[in-house]
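Lab notebook, design round three. We kept the backbone fixed and only want residue identities now. Task for the bench partner: fill in a sequence for the structure below.
Input structure tokens:
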């Protein structure tokens, strides 16, 4: 059978499925259930909780840290080994919780399934569990039902279905059993019904053409199962850093031990030096500081209505250079609103207080008629009819009172064939419906002076106004009345037009402008039609270059890669189109964020570098597939989240540069000193230095305020790692300065001694700690961070210095091999700091002039 039942007559679809309008027999249904399986969305390949847990430790940096823990045990420092192990386990457990929650996306798809369905079996209608439905079953649908599977309509009565979660259409779709073109988009297949959508009006009968994984929702489930989790830039870079560190540790050991043995160093001393170098090379606190800094960012972002479901997503937000956004409920409010009316005299903007105040009796008549010829309330009913009721209420009508004073005595319900609805209220009738239909039944038009003849010229004016409304993305309804209710089908008095729209959110235009100023492109991807999508994009200040879904289907991957760079809007798209667009952008080197709220958005949300779901209107499927959930569905929150992400990246950059520059200086100092026969910093002192520098001060950097230009710079290039040219220059430059002044301090304090002395070791140990805190403020200056803007950093530095004093002047000194220092000794350390500062500043000035921020 063809895979396009929407393009075939209903009789052919019935024949192709070997069934009839009376339905299948129980025996046939049972046989098909065994063949096709249950009507359920199943997960193709679920990860077990144990696999998810083990994946958290599949990182080179983690293995390097575990190796450092083992070396610490060898060196007799079990406490340090336990500390490193706790850091590793805590990171793993946190990541496990985040990933395990993300695996719930396909479970949420299951919940879309209707629990029961009315199906024709053996010439009678019975209620069955929806999972028992099979292709060829004939089901009956009525208002309030969830469609249990994909099907081809056989008949309908005023049937409308809300397909927003699947197609992105903001208004319910009127259904019609007639075939449509084979290449019609999902949203235009009016003869089809789809699993998980909601019947909002009327009734219908459909033959099922697909169940379970063979439905549109099933295709989304397969896409979700096949989509690989996207690593954020930070995850990739930390893993690469760990790999380099691991290689570096091995290379150091292979170089140093033979060299020291060749120079006559005792094997034990050579081994201890190698262990010290390995410990010095590993920034033990890096995973913990990264995790805690991102967690701090998560908390701040939650206060700003952005709930982060994956910690690395915080930093990745700051790297985004393209945002692909859904329209309905994201850029728009997700509800139909009566925006504009036209009567014979003028156009009135209903959302404009000035226009409302000066509107005429004709507008009052139009809104009165729209409220009476209506089955909705402000809280319930068809979205279009609700919009008319809300407009009447806001205009000043008490609709409930109006209806009590004008009781309905008869009605002609809306149908897709008639395309209009009529109600009778005593001796007057009101009509609303498609403009061309209502116009064709009208013989007069209501003017300021009362009814007048509807001339050809006046009718043409109406048609022109309909076109103008449609060009502005308005859905247009016509309203008329009949002085004699018996003449509602032929002798109407045309009152006017109502333009309805799912309006753009007020704050979105400025939010889009702000993100574009930050170098971030914004592209709309929607299931809506071209005209509506282009009009909304234009009203928000976006470009109007539109590409349709059918064009995407005809493009090769290379052609699409070219098109995504120039297109601003993608209309009439399917879930598969969205994923292709994302892949094309990512293949072009972009870091892409995707926003959305519907089931149809889930594969793209999961494929994107950052998936951003709407928290209020978003489906559970979308939320579970996302990295970030906007608690207020406010596009402006994305701008704040990007700003926060960039600020957090700045802070991550600062403490990675800080920690690595310290480690490079430690390695260089230990290595060069060992060539002269001195083990200057044993493993315990190196671990202590790393604890002091990797601990409170590095963590306090996570609370640094953002720089003023954070949203004025372009996004970080996707191929530019966190360890970029500027950081390498900083590590090399400051590392060389630290090593030089520390070697100078070492030889000064040794005074020509042949072996290391406790005094010299204490001076170098303490001088190195003090030097690192000085360098910390220099690094902050490089990232344009005001010196005294972070009181927590000052507290952290003072606390760490107090801890350093404790290992000098308390019994702890026997464990660290240190001796108390006198006032003169502190003076010498002060001179070292004073000598190093201009050299550090010179490195920073040079980097500012020669490397990008």
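Proposed sequence:
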């Amino acid at each position: 059978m063809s895979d396009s039942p929407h393009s075939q007559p209903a009789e052919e679809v019935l024949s192709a499925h070997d069934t009839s309008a009376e339905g299948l027999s129980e025996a046939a249904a049972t046989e098909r259930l065994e063949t096709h399986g249950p009507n359920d969305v199943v997960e193709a390949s679920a990860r077990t909780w144990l696999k998810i847990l083990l994946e958290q430790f599949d990182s080179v940096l983690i293995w390097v840290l575990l190796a450092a823990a083992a070396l610490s045990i060898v060196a007799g420092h079990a406490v340090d080994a336990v500390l490193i192990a706790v850091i590793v386990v805590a990171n793993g457990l946190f990541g496990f919780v985040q990933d395990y929650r993300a695996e719930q996306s396909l479970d949420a798809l299951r919940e879309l399934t209707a629990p029961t369905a009315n199906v024709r079996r053996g010439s009678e209608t019975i209620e069955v569990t929806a999972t028992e439905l099979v292709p060829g079953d004939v089901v009956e649908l009525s208002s309030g039902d969830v469609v249990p599977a994909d099907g081809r309509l056989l008949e309908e009565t005023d049937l409308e279905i809300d397909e927003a979660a699947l197609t992105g259409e903001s208004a319910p779709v009127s259904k019609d059993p007639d075939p449509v073109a084979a290449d019609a988009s999902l949203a235009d297949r009016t003869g089809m019904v789809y699993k998980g959508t909601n019947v909002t009006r009327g009734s219908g009968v459909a033959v099922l053409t697909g169940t379970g994984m063979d439905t549109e929702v099933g295709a989304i489930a397969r896409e979700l199962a096949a989509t690989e989790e996207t690593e954020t830039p930070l995850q990739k870079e930390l893993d690469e850093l760990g790999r380099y560190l691991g290689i570096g540790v091995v290379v150091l050991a292979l170089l140093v031990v033979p060299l020291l043995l060749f120079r006559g160093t005792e094997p034990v001393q050579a081994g201890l030096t190698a262990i010290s170098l390995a410990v010095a090379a590993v920034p033990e606190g890096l995973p913990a500081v990264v995790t805690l800094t991102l967690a701090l960012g998560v908390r701040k972002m939650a206060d700003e209505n952005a709930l982060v479901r994956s910690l690395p997503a915080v930093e990745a937000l700051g790297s985004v250079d393209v945002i692909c956004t859904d329209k309905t409920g994201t850029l728009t409010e997700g509800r139909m609103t009566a925006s504009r009316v036209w009567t014979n005299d003028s156009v009135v903007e209903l959302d404009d207080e000035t226009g409302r105040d000066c509107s005429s009796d004709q507008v009052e008549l139009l809104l009165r008629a729209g409220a009476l010829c209506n089955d909705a309330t402000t809280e319930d009913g068809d979205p279009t009819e609700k919009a008319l009721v809300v407009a009447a209420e806001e205009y000043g009508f008490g609709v409930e009172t109006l209806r009590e004073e004008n009781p309905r005595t008869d009605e002609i319900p809306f149908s897709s064939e008639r395309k209009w609805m009529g109600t009778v209220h005593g001796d007057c009738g009101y009509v609303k419906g498609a403009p061309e239909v209502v116009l064709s039944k009208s013989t007069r038009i209501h003017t300021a002076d009362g009814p007048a003849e509807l001339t050809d010229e006046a009718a043409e004016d109406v048609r022109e106004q309909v076109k103008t409304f449609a060009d502005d993305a308005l859905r247009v309804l016509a309203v008329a009345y009949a002085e004699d209710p018996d003449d509602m089908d032929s002798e109407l008095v045309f009152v006017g037009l109502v333009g309805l729209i799912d309006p753009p959110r007020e704050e979105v235009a400025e939010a889009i402008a702000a993100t574009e100023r930050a170098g971030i492109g914004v592209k709309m991807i929607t299931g809506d039609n071209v005209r509506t999508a282009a009009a909304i994009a234009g009203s928000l200040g976006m470009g109007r270059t539109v590409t349709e879904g059918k064009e995407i289907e005809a493009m090769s991957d290379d052609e699409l890669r070219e098109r995504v760079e120039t297109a601003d809007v993608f209309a009439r798209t399917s879930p598969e189109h969205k994923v292709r667009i994302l892949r094309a952008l990512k293949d072009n080197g972009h870091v892409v964020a995707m926003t959305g709220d519907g089931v149809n958005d889930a594969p793209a949300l999961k494929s994107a570098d950052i998936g951003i779901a709407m928290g209020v209107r978003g489906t559970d499927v979308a939320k579970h597939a996302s990295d970030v959930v906007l608690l207020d569905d406010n596009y402006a929150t994305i701008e704040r989240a990007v700003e926060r992400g960039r600020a957090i990246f700045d802070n991550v950059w600062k403490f990675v540069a800080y920690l690595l520059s310290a480690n490079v200086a430690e390695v260089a100092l230990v290595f060069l000193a060992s060539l002269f026969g001195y083990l200057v910093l044993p493993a315990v002192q190196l671990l202590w230095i790393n604890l002091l520098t990797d601990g409170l001060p590095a963590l306090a950097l996570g609370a640094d305020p953002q720089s003023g230009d954070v949203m004025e710079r372009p996004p970080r290039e996707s191929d530019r790692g966190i360890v970029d040219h500027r950081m390498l220059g900083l590590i090399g430059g400051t590392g060389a300065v630290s090593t030089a002044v520390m070697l100078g301090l070492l030889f000064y304090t040794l005074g020509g001694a042949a072996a290391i002395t406790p005094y010299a070791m204490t001076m170098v140990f303490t001088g190195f700690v003090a030097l690192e805190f000085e360098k910390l403020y220099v690094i902050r200056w490089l990232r344009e961070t005001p010196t005294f803007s972070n009181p927590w950093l000052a507290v952290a530095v003072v606390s760490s210095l107090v801890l350093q004093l404790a290992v000098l002047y308390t019994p702890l000194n026997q464990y660290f091999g240190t001796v108390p220092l006198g006032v003169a000794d502190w003076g010498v350390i002060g001179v070292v700091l004073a000598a190093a500062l201009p050299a550090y500043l010179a490195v920073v000035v040079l980097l500012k002039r020669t490397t990008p921020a």
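Keep this in mind before ordering anything: DSSP finds 33 helices and 24 strands in the chain.
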